[in-house]
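Long-time lurker, finally posting.

We've been working with Integral membrane protein (Streptomyces bingchenggensis) and I want a structural starting point before designing mutants. I don't trust myself to interpret raw outputs, so I'm hoping someone here can both generate the structure tokens and explain anything notable. Sequence follows.
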Amino acid sequence: MTSVRRDPGAEPVRPTAEDAVAAAGSELIGGPAGRRALLGVSWWTPVRIIALVAIGMFALGMVQKLPCYNGGWFLGATAQYTHACYSDMPHLYAGRGFAENVVPYFDRIPGAADGMDYLEYPVLTGLFMEVAARLTPHSGSLQHQEQIYWMVNAGMLMVCAAVVAVCVSRTHRRRPWDALLVALAPAFALTATVNWDLFAVALTSAGVLMWSRSRPLAAGVLLGLATAAKFYPVLLLGALLLLCLRAGRLRAFGTALGGALGAWLVVNLPVMISSRGGLHIREGWLTFYTFSRDRPVDFGSIWLVVSQRTGDPLDNVNVYATLLMVLACAGIAALVLCAPRRPRLAQIAFLIVAAFVITNKVYSPQYVLWLIPLAALARPRWRDFLVWQACEAMYFLGIWMYLAYTGSGDQHRGLPPEGYQLAVIVHVLGTLYLCALVVWDALVPERDVVRRDGSDDPSGGVLDRAPDAFVLGEARHAAAYEGPARVEWGVRRE
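Top reply, 14 upvotes:
Generated this for you. Predicted structure of Integral membrane protein:
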């Protein structure tokens, strides 16, 4: 009988073998898996386990919303805040005309309490909301319909949560267990049903997966669809541009860009263009963009802290935020082109989206969903991830307690402005902490846990192990895969 020797490089990396926090946490389920546990073949593959864990955590997040489902959304303003179970979904069911069969972007919302004439969400998210409304029985009391609408949306978003977990687990082939960071993230469960962001996150995660499989067209199409659901996914195209520039893979980037633009136009053009009275851009379609441009300093942003502390309304906040974002992107570009080894896609994508989150004039609690899958791919270290998640959980509680304080009249039950400002600062510092570690890993590649097994960029697709074509600074003399290549005047030539 002959024994079959297994290739250690083909085995999945076990977090408990390289991460002390993961090893300690595994004691809750019997301790780290042994070497022989990997030899058997079982239905319980990492991807299936992670998907089930993600669904289980999503269900726990639904349970956390139970006080609101049983009346907190309807018994006055403060109950949904003191129980930290607020969701936009039941309020917008009536507030945006879904209860009256208003077609988003085409029909004006009758008598909207906040003066919003049209739906203020991108087209694909509006379609998601409309599908959920069509699946909601328009019978019984309005409160009952709003409950069912939330439940229908939660069911659809649960599918999105499973898609995110599966995509992250399959992006780094040898590190499927890193997706447990996503599945078990506290902020993931707490914010999943606050709004519809998880739909865009699922499309973005699928786009990153397609890029990791060297399918730039499919990746671009998915990122274009994600951008049609939320603005932030377009930032990943910036990360791809910088990395493809350094690797000389601009043709792949062009393919992805073309796919993204085409997919975005296919979704938006039918809603964007109106032929009534001549061709023009429909007002309903523009609402998302005009609302984003005109809204003042809002909850969660560092600009709100500055405004409250100084008394200045910061009317020019768009200029300030844009300038700070441009400076952050310039720094990230310098990192990509000057690092001793080309950074990984997940690292740069995380940094760009994090820069947008920090500099933006609003930070809704569900925006953390944008970062969680990217963080798990960029720096799969449990201690640092959980430190960041603790900061985000503090902010999640902080904003609801602050709204309870402002909505409870003279009683002021909740968190005063000073406490809320501290929660905002904790959120920003937690995000900056993780950004600093990602930058450190990029500048000192030996620290990058993903590359310790000899990998280059498992999520990089055509960038993986590609020789550099354009580099600056000291990177000209420190190529990771030099081969016959040589560097002259910042350009490595074959």
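Before you design anything, note these points.
The first helix runs from residue 15 to 18.
The chain has two domains: 44-463, 464-494.
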